[in-house]
Amino acid sequence: MTKIVLENITKKFSGYTALDNINLKIRDKEFMALLGPSGSGKSTLLYTIAGIYKPTSGKIYFDDIDVTELPPKDRNIGLVFQNWALYPHMKVFNNIAFPLELRKYPKQEIEKKVKEIAKMLQIDHLLNRYPHQLSGGQQQRVAIARALVKEPNVLLLDEPLSNLDALLKIEVRAELKRLQKELGITTVYVTHDQAEALAMADRIAIIRKGKILQIGSPYEVYYKPKYKFVGKFLGNPP
Ligand code: ADP
Ligand code: MG
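Structure tokens predicted for ABC transporter related protein (238 residues):
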């Protein structure tokens, strides 16, 4: 089943075309990586899926429903950004609880859900700390927990591991992947890191200059690149 459809999406910033007629179908429970060099339009595409940006033209569907005009809060998505921006004055517990408090969940339910998701991400021993008392990897797990606690249908991540050192990257990468499969959550993952995309994704969309050049499994894009650029970019030049 198809979860998200992007139909002829174009996004212009005062005349500059950041996304050029993008067509993309993301399957239910799929882990889709958006991979491309810096400035290729990955974040713009992710924020357009999130509803943070409105496309200049084109349509977006979630579960066959036209959401093009829906604001982010009505799209049932979890978002994790590159700079994970936890609330510095709130303890980890309250950071994770925040989306539920906004939605006026009962206190007991909030506590239950926060503890559940914290346990899954192995940060349940950190709930009483403040963000500045955590390592980078721990902070990023808190951001992921905060995005997941309201049980969204779709998880959108923008280079979530780029600020972590190499070892932590591998650790959080594996954990994120496990969680994604366990929860069966449709995930769109923006990265410029080829190895990350190849290791994590079910399918990869290769983006360059606002256009999707190729969509395929890691195997397909690596071994059967449709363009010289794709082969080169993935480190398997012709
Ligand atoms: P990526 O995430 O792949 O690095 P972006 O989606 O951030 O790329 O940017 C794609 C292009 O659109 C870049 O040339 C960038 O300068 C431009 N762009 C992105 N956001 C804006 C904005 N808010 N206003 C003007 N130009 C933007
Ligand atoms: Mg970006």
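The mean pLDDT is 94.
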